[in-house]
């Protein structure tokens, strides 16, 4: 494969430019490659980088004369991961990819980023195996003779459609091979749907996905800061939804070079000098039922008002609340009581909240000031408290209360 790949790029450098591969997968009679490259079809003066998926037949041995020792079935298409608007915001640089099997499809979860500028952003997009094959089997080819790479009319495609697997590629005619040689790229992209977890000032360099009964749990890592995001991803009808569950820094003694998953149990991180094991059930960090119960690895104990690793028995046991992101944490409402917090005049108090949450005081949203400061992890710090600060403070995430405090400043 390496020799054939090298030969391909050497002979057709005008078609595939400076590729950087991030993953390959064996599925059925094909091998699928995910990579980024210089986009020859972009119209800008600067060299643009696009992400691609490519496919080749496993039994492809090249042509007899034309495309000798070169793949005859190679096709590629752009991967579209973008925020829709009048001027779409593209995440064009694929960084990592992993494969997930579902009951009716194969999904490829990929981390994508914008170009390396002062405003770099990242997101996760999900590409369907069925959508990829639908495009390769029935989509229009890009016309290399068109200045803007317009779709090639369907009646211009020969009977042997490029990319079709055959028992022996030596039997293909020179006419078919000359056409395949010049029509490697599809006109339309493969859509990754709405981006998951679009985030500024990060580059998600690694990804892993743990498949649970109700949802998939995405782990995305920025190895520049060794920060890990945990995100729930689930389907409601024909719509996919997501919810950020957790964000934390991983202490591994240097930049993380590799990340791998033991499903349902651990993540492993490797730096140049060490390997670190990280439990998926980081339950002790959740301060409330609403945050704990939607984490698929945790359950909330009502009597102890604390979060513990989830066990199968918790689902049928009294005093335990176990939910998931798609169902929400409505069961927590009955047990939710304001947490008393005592302080003295002049103290500073720190209220633990949720990343992305908003804070309210007695039902009114708090505006940050020199005395009320929002923290990066979703908390709230109130400086130099006085009796005027006596009130109920609640943190809401996506409109739902995740924790509530009752502050009492006493002389």
UniProtKB/TrEMBL annotation:
GO function terms (MF aspect): chemorepellent activity; semaphorin receptor binding
Gene3D superfamilies hit by this protein: Immunoglobulins, YVTN repeat-like/Quinoprotein amine dehydrogenase
Source superkingdom: Eukaryota
Residue ranges of domain Sema in the record: 1-280
A Pfam match: Sema
Signal peptide segment: none
GO cellular component labels: plasma membrane
Name of this chain's protein: Semaphorin-2A (inferred by orthology to a C. elegans protein)
Organism: Nippostrongylus brasiliensis (Rat hookworm)
